From TrEMBL:
Main function: The pyruvate dehydrogenase complex catalyzes the overall conversion of pyruvate to acetyl-CoA and CO(2). It contains multiple copies of three enzymatic components: pyruvate dehydrogenase (E1), dihydrolipoamide acetyltransferase (E2) and lipoamide dehydrogenase (E3).
Catalytic function, reaction form: N(6)-[(R)-lipoyl]-L-lysyl-[protein] + pyruvate + H(+) = N(6)-[(R)-S(8)-acetyldihydrolipoyl]-L-lysyl-[protein] + CO2
Domain Dehydrogenase E1 component intervals: 74-377
Keyword Protease tagged: no
Name by which UniProt lists this protein: pyruvate dehydrogenase (acetyl-transferring)
Molecular-function GO terms, alphabetical: pyruvate dehydrogenase (acetyl-transferring) activity
Stored SUPFAM superfamilies: Thiamin diphosphate-binding fold (THDP-binding) (SSF52518)
One Pfam family of this chain: E1_dh
Amino acid sequence: MAVSRLASSTSTLCKLLLRPLSAPPFYRSFSAAAAGDDQTVLTIETSVPFTGHKIDPPSRSVEATPKELLSFFRDMAVMRRMEIAADSLYKSKLIRGFCHLYDGQEAVAVGMEAAITKRDSIITAYRDHCIFLGRGGNLVEAFSELMGRRTGCSKGKGGSMHFYKKEAGFYGGHGIVGAQVPLGCGLAFAQKYSKDETVTFALYGDGAANQGQLFEALNISALWDLPVILVCENNHCECCEDFGVESEGNDRRKEWLMEMKIGSGCGADQVDGMDVLAVKQACKFAKEHVLKNGPIILEMDTYRYHGHSMSDPGSTYRTRDEITGVRQERDPIERVRKLILTHEIASASELKDIEKEIRKKVDEAIAQAKESPMPDPSELFADVYVKGYGVEAFGADRKEVKGVLP
């Protein structure tokens, strides 16, 4: 299929791919119109087979349109650029506190979103920036929150670990390891109770696989056939330790990942989390499965390029050659770039132009976020306690608090 069938020129392609839907000229991910009207369906095989437990795994043959592949490329490139910019802002001390970056894992966020609707719910841990973008958040909200500004998605009071957008079905951003999974199962309980045919994706890292509350939540979800998909983002690296290194702790973590699949009685599927089409296929399969049969576990085999957090250089427990090897062989953006070029959907120069425009939009979003004011001190106790129970301002009588309140 020739490039001309999708766009008449480089500039036209870029404008179509990067056209915002809302008034501010910044991305609302997964919403911008893609190039052309060509709905040719391509059938593409996933990078590796799925590995199923107690279920027949989905087919490796995935259908995708040229428009969809271009959207995948753009959305993952936006996420990558946002995280690279966040790294720089943190080192410039414009982002304070904790900050956990997602670059390398973008295929999970994008592929999952492609398989579901905004009526479905997602809840995740503290590596949440890109999941937020996928749900419909924009760059200004993201950078404002990272820098503690009032226009942030959590009004500047949540920071990196506590992004939130309830109206888009995104329930956070949670800092306590594994604590979001029971909440996700609770969301699924509400969905089953309301009979609205929606599901919840509860994401957690491999480092949370040993948490008791995770087992407990999965157990009750299995008993009640709740429409919840537990997604383990196995990036093979816990804080300061490589999952692949032989040690007693890592051996137990590997056992826990397997015990969850076996002991719960639920079906499970292992997925190449660096392949956006595989993630899309697995999540589509999982949604259909849980609406009929109750919970399922998806283990996403993925990889993060940055350290665990900004205090972790990420190079003491793995080599630079290892990281470079993953970038060269498995990078999710480069895989889609190769597909686009192979099927002649766009040229290499057109994709480069898209990336240049993305860098510009990210820079503009950062500039706008910097202009946003900090939260007013009067907001200190807002949205902390439930209203109407007399504790909305619990602690406001402390002298150090009185000093900042109006």
